[in-house]
Amino acid sequence: MMAYPDNTKIISILASISIVLGFLENLFPLPIPFIRLGISNIPIVIGVYLIKELRFLLLLGGIKSLITAIFSTGFIFRLIIAFPSILVAILFMFYYHKATKNYSSAISTSVIGSVVNITMQFIIIKLVIIKHLAFLKILPYFILAAILTGAIVGLISNNILNKRG
């Protein structure tokens, strides 16, 4: 198969960039507790446009999530919450892009992924950690933040994709 080596190279490059961006993002304090810009997701959004097979996109997200969790504080927490969330977000971005590729951009794709990611994190936290429903009252604020940060990540991703020709 000729596609496999190309996907391997793309996944390696995008995963490496994503991991480095994740480490850099963790160096800076959070302006708002628990809300990150998500710059490490720029390579993931770009991957949605460069990698045509879902399994390779899921591999990219899995590598990014696993390695970032290994080298961060709160390994188990990050693994339990971030790993499945990014995989579900990739599923939504992949199928959204596939269904709307002629009518959408990396901005809308990123916003979809960002909103799905934070929603999944809340669902997992509810199922595994917090049993009370009261904490769900803050979900709308996190979704608003996800829309804003997703748009920024999407704008950056869109600019990179447009520059590559």
UniProtKB/TrEMBL annotation:
<feature type="transmembrane region" description="Helical">
    <location>
        <begin position="141"/>
        <end position="161"/>
    </location>
</feature>
<feature type="transmembrane region" description="Helical">
    <location>
        <begin position="107"/>
        <end position="129"/>
    </location>
</feature>
<keyword id="KW-0472">Membrane</keyword>
<keyword id="KW-0812">Transmembrane</keyword>
<keyword id="KW-1133">Transmembrane helix</keyword>
<dbReference type="Pfam" id="PF07456">
    <property type="entry name" value="Hpre_diP_synt_I"/>
</dbReference>
<dbReference type="InterPro" id="IPR010898">
    <property type="entry name" value="Hpre_diP_synth_I"/>
</dbReference>
<feature type="transmembrane region" description="Helical">
    <location>
        <begin position="63"/>
        <end position="95"/>
    </location>
</feature>
<protein>
    <submittedName>
        <fullName>Heptaprenyl diphosphate synthase</fullName>
    </submittedName>
</protein>
<feature type="transmembrane region" description="Helical">
    <location>
        <begin position="30"/>
        <end position="51"/>
    </location>
</feature>
<feature type="transmembrane region" description="Helical">
    <location>
        <begin position="7"/>
        <end position="24"/>
    </location>
</feature>
